[in-house]
Structures are given as C-alpha cells and as structure tokens.
Amino acid sequence: MSNNTGNVLTALLTGAVVGAGIGILYAPDKGKKTRKKIKKSAVKAKDDISKSLITAKEEFSRSADAKKEEFEEKLEDTLSNMSYKADDILVALEKKLEDLREKNAQLQK
Fold first, then answer.
1. What is the pLDDT of residues 40-72, one digit of tens each?
2. Can you tell me where the transmembrane regions are (predicted)?
3. What is the pLDDT of residue 32?
4. Looking at residue 73, what is its pLDDT?
5. How far is CA 91 from CA 77, 79, 83, 84, 87, in A?
6. Do the Cβ atoms of 52 and 6 come closer than 8 Å?
7. Within 10 Å of residue 83's Cβ, how many Cβ atoms?
8. Three-class SS of residue 94?
9. Is 37 exposed, middle or buried (0-12, 13-18, 19+ CB in 10 A)?
10. How far apart are CA 49 and CA 5, in angstroms?
11. What percentage of the chain has pLDDT greater than the value 90?
C-alpha cells in the first residue's frame, strides 16, 4: 500500500467516524442510548484503523524485503562483473609484463 493510499484510507475512516458521530448526536435517542452508539462506532473505527495499520505494515514489510532482495542481486551482479574486469586487467598486465621482460632480455644481449 502506497503512502497516498494509506492517507486516503485514514481520511475515509476518519470521515466515516465523524459522520457516524454527528449522525448519532442528531438522532432523537436518549443520552444513554446515544452514548452506547457513539462507543460502538468508536470501537468499530478503532478496529478498522488497527486492521488498516496491520495491512499497511505487512505490505511495507513485503515491499522492503523485495527491495532488499533486488538490491542484493544487483550488488552480486556488480561484484561479479567487477571481478571479471579485474581478471581481464590482470591478464593484460601480465601480458604487458611478459612483453617487457622479452624486450629487456633482447636489449641485454
């Protein structure tokens, strides 16, 4: 769940709670019954928000794990490529050194 989706979800839940609360307050019920309805709505909203937070946390965790795995794969590929390039450089330097040794041997004759 993206951050924007989480914000929209939180705004919708907050709006629903506020709307339910206003609706209950304007309903022609006795005080005790109204308080009971408000409490029930608040508990339901709390449960809904808790579920949304758990879902968002799980999604974030999955996303973080996927990004970590992707990073590790790219790092491994990069290190592997660097290793091959280092080997190529070493081979080229060894060849150059051998050429220089041969030239030096010819010059000393």
1. 888 888 888 888 889 888 988 999 999 999 999
2. 6-27
3. 78
4. 94
5. 21, 18, 12, 11, 6
6. yes
7. 10
8. helix
9. middle
10. 13
11. 27
